[in-house]
Write a structure and sequence with these properties.
single chain; alpha/beta; Rossmann fold; globular; AAA+_ATPase; DUF815; P-loop_NTPase; ATPase AAA family
């Protein structure tokens, strides 16, 4: 194995503590003839456990060794894989190096662990290459990662040459993508060294779709139209969803990501205290072959907060143009985002002309930089009833309509008033009592 791994070039820059490198070192020490059997066994078991942990997290099955190698190929962001993601496989000298690496991976796919098992008197590799995973709810793992890795792994097992192996991998890069962005829908960020950001996948994102949001048809239509133009490479605007709480603003954003994920749409959720990282975030994603929504939930600023100026510069007004593959979608209970006071409206009158204060213009300018603003308002009493009825029907509740409406009225009086969220909570309450 150490000989095979040494031949990797494009995919050879792996961390020393990676599973593949550690197993290669085990094989190297075994072949040296000077080793402790107990030490090598312990090192092997440690790597087997890591494969099992990864396999459990991603619901790998059948041949965990093949699944692991496939996962390495998918996650490796190198010049070759990133180029394939953007333009597909093109004729070029880099293909020569990539095909050499793929030949090595084919050898690793077919690697015979019997020598290692016989020398150490273990059978762990036989077990993980003929593995039967325990059935479990999909919520326990990332379904996007699991499905893609297992499907590609099965396809690679069937290849009969370096060329067919090459075609499978490069097609995956072009159609799905590379690394975490290729496998996941949504991300949060955290800061690492030198103000760079690291993207953490959100594995348990709500699977809501727009049809789950009852009513608000005009709002959904506007949001869909803008997002469809964006993923199709046409001009589109940043979007501000504003209005009353519990009306479905955040749900609409999640649903739109689920709807257009297959078209290359990804979402990055960012919090107010992270706005100073926006420029670095954009620099890291602007050349990727995806469309990114930078999502800001419940966006608002108090009088003494100045973080909104980072956002203003990024949206429109900074020296660097915002890349075409990035939009900002925000939700807020405030139409103008920044808290206004009556003193902001004290205008100065000169010669009969009214001049609005500079303070007010400064505060309104942030909201004005969102090209699309969509209002979500509390439903009427009848609309609230309609939402309750439709949710109850979807959940299979068979209560009498009149009784259901009476109970819905009692519920909303003590639970925040009329809204779609209140209706959802009421139906959940009824389901819990069954």
């Amino acid at each position: 194995m150490e000989r095979i791994v040494s031949k990797l070039l494009m995919y050879g820059d792996m961390p020393e503590d990676s599973i593949l490198m550690q197993l290669a070192y085990v094989c190297r020490d075994l072949h040296s003839g000077s080793y402790s059997k107990e030490d090598l066994t312990t090192r092997v078991y440690k790597q087997i456990k890591r494969i099992l942990v990864l396999g459990t997290a991603c619901a790998f099955d059948k041949n965990l060794w093949h699944n692991y190698l496939t996962y390495l190929l998918i996650m490796d962001e190198n010049p070759f894989s990133l180029t394939c993601e953007k333009v597909g496989s093109k004729d070029g000298s880099v293909n020569h190096f990539a095909k050499n690496d793929f030949a090595a991976f084919r050898e690793l796919f077919d690697y015979d662990f019997s020598e290692l098992e016989n020398a150490l008197n273990v059978d762990c590799f036989t077990c993980i290459t003929n593995y039967k995973a325990i059935d479990k709810p999909e919520l326990m793992y990332n379904g996007n990662v699991s499905e893609k890795v297992r499907n590609l792994s099965a396809a690679l097992e069937k290849t009969d040459s370096e060329e067919s192996f090459f075609q499978e991998i490069t097609s995956f890069y072009k159609n799905i993508g590379v690394g975490a962005f290729g496998l996941n829908k949504a991300f949060r960020i955290h800061e690492i060294a030198d103000s760079k950001v690291e993207f953490n996948p959100i594995n348990n994102m709500d699977a809501v779709v727009l049809d789950d949001l009852i009513g608000y048809e005009l709002q959904k239509k506007k949001l869909i139209a803008n997002t469809r133009a964006f993923v199709e490479g046409k001009k589109a605007n940043n979007v501000l969803l504003f209005g009353d709480s519990g009306t479905g603003k955040s749900t609409s954003i999640k649903a739109i990501v689920n709807e257009f994920y297959g078209d290359g749409l990804r979402m990055i959720e960012i919090y107010k205290h992270q706005f100073r990282l926006l420029s670095q975030l954009i620099a890291q994603i602007k050349n990727r072959n995806y469309k990114f929504i930078i999502y800001m939930d419940d966006l608002s600023f108090e009088e003494d907060e100045s973080d909104y100026k980072f956002l203003k510069a990024v949206i429109e007004g900074g020296v660097e143009t915002k890349p075409d593959n990035i939009l900002i979608y925000a939700t807020s209970n405030r139409r103008h985002l920044i808290k206004e006071t009556w003193k902001d409206r004290r205008d100065v009158e000169q010669d009969g002309d009214i001049h609005r204060s500079d303070t007010m213009e400064e505060k309104l300018s942030l909201a004005n930089r969102f090209g699309v603003t969509i209002g979500y308002y509390k439903p009427s009493r009848q609309e609230y009833y309609d939402i309750v009825l439709e949710l109850a029907q979807k959940e299979g509740l068979t209560l009498d309509k009149e009784e259901l409406m009476k109970e819905a009225d009692r519920w909303e009086l003590n639970h925040g008033g009329i809204s779609g969220r209140t209706a959802r909570q009421f139906v959940n309450h009824l389901l819990g009592e069954q």
